[in-house]
Amino acid sequence: LWAEAPEFELTVDSTAVESRSFAFTVRNAKPGLHLAAHSLDGSSLAVTMTSDLGSVKTWRLWLPPAQSRLRFFAPPSSGPFQIAVFSDIHNGIGEIDDFFVHLEQHPEVRFVLCAGDVSDSGDRQEFEAVQQAFLRSPVPIFTTAGNHDIRDSALWAEMFGRHSFHFAFQEVHF
């Protein structure tokens, strides 16, 4: 999964006859991201984090042969926070590490909003390079699509999710 917001939920339909073990990996994950899982009757499902590599986290859990609800969330925090915003990096993706070095010097920045145009031609190779670059960021980067990015709308959705989105963070709506 590619996280396109600090917190998100999803429903999993398991058609298996018996409970099965699944691994869920979230890339572009916010620091401190947790996973809580519940079956349809509301009972909690056991979840084990098996890997925490900064912005890439993996959990293993047993899902029953029915619908389950997964909630990816970070512990609540309060107080002031800062975000960073950029756009139109399609011609400068090679220099983005300079931006990440700057971000590391500002731990008050909780995430980055990207206003689109992460690619020049909107092809898979460019999107994969952008994702690899974003994973080097010390904080998650949530991006909307720009006009350069949506030449293949289905590819954007596969790689990054929805073209536009909204979420709340510490009671602030983005």
What's the helix and strand layout?
Elements: E1 8-13, E2 20-27, E3 34-39, E4 44-45, E5 47-53, E6 56-63, E7 67-73, E8 82-86, H1 96-104, E9 109-114, H2 124-134, E10 141-143, H3 153-160, E11 168-169, E12 172-173
Parallel strand pairs: 8-9, 9-10
Antiparallel strand pairs: 1-7, 2-6, 3-4, 3-7, 5-6, 11-12
Short structural summary:
It is built from three helices and twelve strands.
The average pLDDT is 87
Beta-strand share of residues? 35-45%
> What share of the residues lie within helices?
10-25%
Largest sheet: 4 strands, antiparallel
- Distance between the terminal alpha carbons, to the nearest Å? 21 Å
Poorly predicted parts: none
Q: Largest sheet, order of strands side by side?
A: 1-7-3-4
